[in-house]
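Hi team,

Filling in the usual template for the complex we talked about on Friday. All components are listed, including any nucleic acid strands or ligand strings, so the model treats them as one assembly.

SUBMITTER: L.P.
PURPOSE: interface mapping
COMPONENTS: two
RESIDUES: 768
SEQUENCES:
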Amino acid sequence: MDRVAVVGASMTQFGQRDAWIRGLLAEAGEACLDDAGVPPDAVDHLYVSNMASGEFEGQTGVPNALAHDLSAIPAYTARIDQTSSSGGAGTYAAWQSVASGASEMTLLVGGEKMTHRSTAEATDVIASLTHPCEYKHGVTLPSFAGLTARLYLDEYDAPRESLGKVAVKNHRNGVDNPHAQFRKEVSLEEVLESPVVADPLRLYDFCPITDGSAALLFCPESVAREWTDEYAVISGIGGATDTHVVHERPDPTTMRGVVESSERAYEMAGLGPEDVDVAELHDMFTILEFLQFEDLGFAEKGEGWKAVEEGRTDRDGELPINTSGGLKSKGHPLGASGVAQAYEVYEQVTGDAGDRQVDADVGLACNVGGFGNCVTTTIVEAAE
Amino acid sequence: MDRVAVVGASMTQFGQRDAWIRGLLAEAGEACLDDAGVPPDAVDHLYVSNMASGEFEGQTGVPNALAHDLSAIPAYTARIDQTSSSGGAGTYAAWQSVASGASEMTLLVGGEKMTHRSTAEATDVIASLTHPCEYKHGVTLPSFAGLTARLYLDEYDAPRESLGKVAVKNHRNGVDNPHAQFRKEVSLEEVLESPVVADPLRLYDFCPITDGSAALLFCPESVAREWTDEYAVISGIGGATDTHVVHERPDPTTMRGVVESSERAYEMAGLGPEDVDVAELHDMFTILEFLQFEDLGFAEKGEGWKAVEEGRTDRDGELPINTSGGLKSKGHPLGASGVAQAYEVYEQVTGDAGDRQVDADVGLACNVGGFGNCVTTTIVEAAE
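RESULT (copied from the run log):
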């Protein structure tokens, strides 16, 4: 079977933006088509990853607006929502549209506009994804993160400092990402002395509220060769859920959605964790980087924190994690994040990552919705 | 290639329901699995067609809630939104998941919970899908319908009564649909004397605000045969957009999205309009039934109204349209409607349509988002 190729990618400046959702989506979409040298009328499917433009901005029907703004009519459009993993879900939808033979050119644009709302308003929208039996008792996503961090540190004898070092590493990486929301280093002391949010986690253990968008262009590999010499392939992709009620999980330090989705992706690619050269993990909270690192098979359960402590996930380490700066410093516009993760590994495997470049042929992106409620894992490989 | 089969289908009672969106989705999902005799742990992909659970009910993450409620974890889940054509978009997503080889069993559940909001609140959410350059001048979907109806009647010398006869026919069909919101006939006089909404259209030219859900279960045909002798196949499916700004259309009586999406569906199926035995059209407004009838190739442009006048689209006519009662009498829970259309043609081609049964091997469902902004056309055929 023809493999699914990625022939273009883009992301906008992440941060506090003056544009509305339509403007953000159009900016990334246009840049992605430019990057690939593909005209809008070659696009036959157009997917938008977005969680909540209606709730945040009172604007629905954004895929149709984007088809208009890009001059891509009559391309088919739809919006894919999987909360904070909408970008991964959109990547999966785009992959399916090409792999099913329905599309010869699918543009995926993920975006969210959030910073015009207060943090309380924005997090209220996000909290509406959790199960009422937990939400109504005040257990929201940051609370889950705090509880899980405490359990992890206790269970695996990990020092509190190891979590802080995730933030330090990802901020250091973000300095070299021109699109990142925060291009500034933070010291371990700054992380450990920032205000408590959900004990033991502090402000600098959390990603910010962000506006931004990112885009990817997909087609069959045979078509890709007609347009460009530089492309990558999606060699594996999979998605899976975990319990919607977080306290029902037998071991809250294991993210079943990560385990199952990556098993599907590895099997499709004919690869294992040992083959991955670079990865973007969903570090919405620092603790999540440890859990995903382990559940993707990069370390034994309870050993993930040591990789950070020992510098093995640094940019010059054996398996660089979040070379983009991660959600932590790059920012987390919900619908954009999964697309921006795939953007980063695409840039890495095609050798276009600039100051962030590492030696990589196989990249992996793990995009987490809710508190692991739904996860998509994507493997991007350099074309031969 | 293995064709994509439909092995089960269900719909709930449409109307004013006490349940919330989660309850509605679970009800249709469970009934669909029961219909097919397939256990929830056989489901690997679970799609939810829904436009606005966040806006209507403050509830997001409903696919994860549904995976929980159906015991379908760790099946992959996502929400597909294409405004009022979310159900058709979900059908296309489900088809892609199977046709791409990613899934061996995909459950699609479409639903919307709307009646707890006032008509003004509900229509405000719906109006947010239109382009601001029209919406801000008060041109909402009912206005487009009125303007288009006036143009159509004038351009093609059609009598106002012909529009009323769409309502009369679809209400008559709805009497025999146990799931329909309105199981009552209306007379032509009642339609023509109901309150004016958007001249020349009156209240009975419009579908109601509705709660409800519907579901379909998809798998490769080779897998279908392991589960059941009774299944149908999706032999053709396609989607397309029209201008987001309605007044930019060169001829507002032609719906380009219907033309293009049906061309794709016919081509995939190797069929033409003359092969279709029964069809569900998106009669959100009576005028839309004429436009789709023509743009699907069932009549020449400007001739569609004659088919209704002459009884050719009645249940005992040569091409029965909206045997379910259509959106007009069955109701229109946004995310459910496209799924319920496919449910009806599935029931027809598998011979399970009860009192509504017509002689049909090939059924077509045309699901329209916005004012034709995005359209999905699906062809369902009886298996050999």
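MY TAKE: Chain A has two domains: 4-117+210-233, 129-207+235-382. The mean pLDDT of chain A is 97.

Thanks, L.
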